[in-house]
Amino acid sequence: MLIIKNLRASVEGKEILKGVNLEVKTGEIHAIMGPNGSGKSTLASVLAGNNNYEVTAGEVWLDGKDLLELSPEDRAREGVFLAFQYPVEIPGVSNINFLRTAMNEIRAYRNLPVLEAKEFLKMVKEKQKLVEFDAALTNRSLNEGFSGGEKKRNEIFQLAMLDPKLAILDETDSGLDIDALRIVSKGVNTLRSEKNAFVLITHYQRLLDYIVPDFVHVLYNGQIAKTGSKELALELEEKGYDWLKEEVKEKELA
Amino acid sequence: MITQITNSLYDQLIADFELKSILSASSEPARLQQLRATAFEQFRLNGFPTTKVEDWKYINLAPFLKGEFNTEPTDEPLPGLDEAIAKATIPKLDCYQVIMVNGQYQAELSHIVPGEAIHISTLSSAINQPAFQSHFGKYIDLDKNHFAALNTALYRDGLFIEMAAKAIADKPLHIIHITTADSNLFLQPRHLFVIGAHAEISIIESFVSVDGNNDVAKLVVNNVSEIVVGEQAQLKHYYIQTGHPNTSYIHHTQIEQKSSSGYNNYKASFPGTGLLRNNLNVSLNGENIESHLYGIYLAGGRQLVDNHTIVDHLKPHCYSNELYKGVMKDEAIAVFNGKVLVRKDAQKTNAFQKNNNLMLSKTAVVDSKPQLEIFADDVKCSHGSTIGQFNEDALFYLKARGIGEDKAKALLIHAFAYDVTEKVPLPAVQAYINHLIEEGLGGSVMSDE
Questions:
Q1: For residue B237, which of B148, B305, B169, B287 has the smallest C-alpha distance?
Q2: Closest C-alpha among B280, B279, B214 to residue B247
Q3: What is the rounded average pLDDT of the residues B122-146?
Q4: Distance, in angstroms, between A125 CA and closest chain B CA?
Q5: Could you tell me if residue B58 is inside a domain?
Q6: Which of B201, B254, B244 has its CA nearest to residue B221?
C-alpha cells in the first residue's frame, strides 16, 4: 500500500530525514519508535503534506499514486489520515460542520453523493460510542476547550468517521492517562482491518501493549536504523536507545 | 491641487445655501433657520476636510468629490427600484419595511405599521412635533464634523421615527435606503429617531444601490442620523452596507443615551461602495447605561472603508463594549479609529474595545487606531488591535482532513467573523449577514444547514 523510498526532507535548510525506506502492506500495523529529534514527527508531517517541510529526494507511493505530487487535501481524499500530535483549536468552526464538510469533500472526490444529514448524524453517534467520546460536538468549536485527552480522542473519532486507508498516529499516546490510552487503543483495534493499515509513531512501548504491531522500526538520525518484531519494542524499553546509537556508529565506521 | 478640485463642489454648495435661505426663509421655524445658519457658517469656514485634518488623515476625499454634482435629487422615478427592494429584503425576516429613495421616505412603497406606538413620517413634516423640537440638532459637534455641519445647513428631508414611551415593537423595522442616479448626485438625507422611555425596538437599516444606473454617475451620500434612546429604553440597531463602486457614503450617526438605556449597534459592510465612512458616536449621558458596538467589515476591490467611533462616558456606572473585525481582500483599504472617552464624573466605568483584522491579500491596507482617554480614576478599561493572516496550522489541519484550500479558507474567515456574527440577535439577519460574507468572498461555499 505505502512505499517510501530513500525519502529525504529538511526544514529551514536543516536535513531531518536522511533517506527513509519503508513498506507498509494492507492489514499491517507498523510502529515507528526512536529517541527525541530522530525525525518521527517529521516523517508523519511529510506524509500528510505539511509544506513547512521540504522534500529534497525520494519517492512515496500510495497504491501506485505518487503521494508527493498531491496537495494535503488530495492525500486525505486518497485515504491518508494523520492523527495530529497537537490537534489545532479552531474557535468559530463547529466540530460537526467541520466533519461534515470534510466527509463531503472526500466523498465528492470519490464521486459519491453527499451524505444525508440523518445518515451522517447516525454515523456520528455510532462512532462516538466506539471511541467512548461523549463530548457534545454540535455547538462546540473544533477542539476548543477540549482537554488533552479529549483532543486525542477527537482525532480517533475523526479517524473512525473518515475511515482512511492509511492512518498515521503521531504520538497519539503521549499525554494520555491509562484510561484514555485504553480507549484510544480499543478504537484502533476495532477499526483495523484487512483493507487498511496503521503507522503508529510513539516514544513509549506502553502503547504497544494495547495495539500489537506487526513490525517495529527504530528511526534514528533520519534513517530507519533497525526493524524487528514487537519484541524489539520491549528491548528498547528495557535498554533505552544508547546501544542502538553505538551500533549505528559502528556501522558507519565499518 | 486638492483645494482646487474640491472648490467647485464647495462653491456650488455655498451658492445653494444662499439661494435656499432666500427661497425658504419663511417656511421653517426660526430655531431651525438659526441652526442652519450656524452650521453653514461652520462649513463655510472649515470646508471639506483634507488629509491634514486628523480625523481624515487616511482618506483623500478629492477624487470622490471631483466633478459637477446635482444637489437636489429629481422626483422622477428611476427604474430598478423593485429589484433593489427585492435585493435588500432579508429572507425569513418578519418586519415592517420602510422604503427610502435618495433620502426621501416612500410611504406608498412602505409597510403600514399598525397602532399608535410607532410614528413614522418625513422629517420635514415633523418639525412641529415636540420630539423634533427637543432633540433635533442638539447633539452633534458641528465644529469638528465638517460633513454633519454641511448636512445640517442644507439637508432637504429624511426620516422621522418616534416611539412612544413603554411601547414594545412587535416586529423589527427594516429601513431600506436606496440610492440611484443617472447623473452625478450629492445627497444629504437627515434622520431623527426618538425612542421613548422604557420602549423597545430593533431597527435594521440596509443601504443599496440600484444596479446599472450608477455605472456612469457618481453618487455621494452625506447622511446624518440622530438617535435618542430614552430612559430604560432598548434599541438594537443594525447597519447592512452594500453599494455600487461609484457610490460614496459618509455616515454620521449620533446616539444620545439616557439613564439605564441599552443601545446595541451591529454594523456589517461588504465589497461594493467605493468609499464608506462611518462616524458612530455614542454618548452615554446617564447612569447604568450599556452600549455594545459590533462591526464586521469585508472590504474588497479598491474599496475604502473607514470606521470612526466615539464612545463617550459622561456619567458613572456605565458599560461599553466595542468589537470590530475586518476581513481585507484585494487592494482594499480600511481604517479603524475608535475613541473611548471616560470623563471625570464617569467613575466605575467599564469600557472595552477591540479591533482585529484578517488580511487575505498582500496589497490590502489597514490603519487601526484604538484610543482611550480617561479622566476618571476608578475605571476598568482595555483596548487592543491586531492585524494578521491565516493561521497556517489551522489551514493545514483542515486540509489534512480533505477540505480544499478555498473551502478551508472560507471556514476560517467565517470563524474569524464569528465573534461578531454570533452576537447578531435576529437569526434571519445573522443568516443574511453570513450569506453576504460568502457572496463577498466570491462564491466560496459553506455547508452549514
A1: B169
A2: B214
A3: 95
A4: 19
A5: no
A6: B244
> ipTM of the predicted structure?
0.95
Q: Going by C-beta distance under 8 Å and a sequence separation of 6 or more, which residues neighbour residue A146?
A: A87, A89, A135, A154
Q: How far is CA A230 from its chain centroid?
A: 18
Q: Would an 8 Å CB–CB cutoff place B438 in contact with chain A?
A: no
Which band of pLDDT confidence, cut at 50, 70 and 90, is reported for residue B446? very low
Q: Does A13 touch chain B (CB under 8 A)?
A: no
Domains of chain A: 2-253 (3.40.50.300)
* Stated pTM of the model: 0.87
CA distance A86 to chain B (A): 10
d(CA B162, CA B270): 30
Residue pLDDT, tens place only, B240-287:
999 999 999 999 999 999 999 999 999 999 999 999 999 999 999 999
User: Which chain A positions have a beta carbon within 8 Å of B392's beta carbon?
Assistant: 52
Confirm whether B277 is domain-assigned. Answer: yes
- Cβ contact B187:B249 at 8 Å: no
Q: Report the C-alpha gap between B431 and B436 in whole angstroms.
A: 9
**pLDDT tens for each residue of B192-236:** 999 999 999 999 999 998 876 567 789 999 999 999 999 999 999
Whether B5 maps to a domain, the answer reads no
Q: Which of residues B391, B414, B435 is at a domain's end? A: B391
Cβ contacts (< 8 Å) between B391 and chain A: which residues? 88
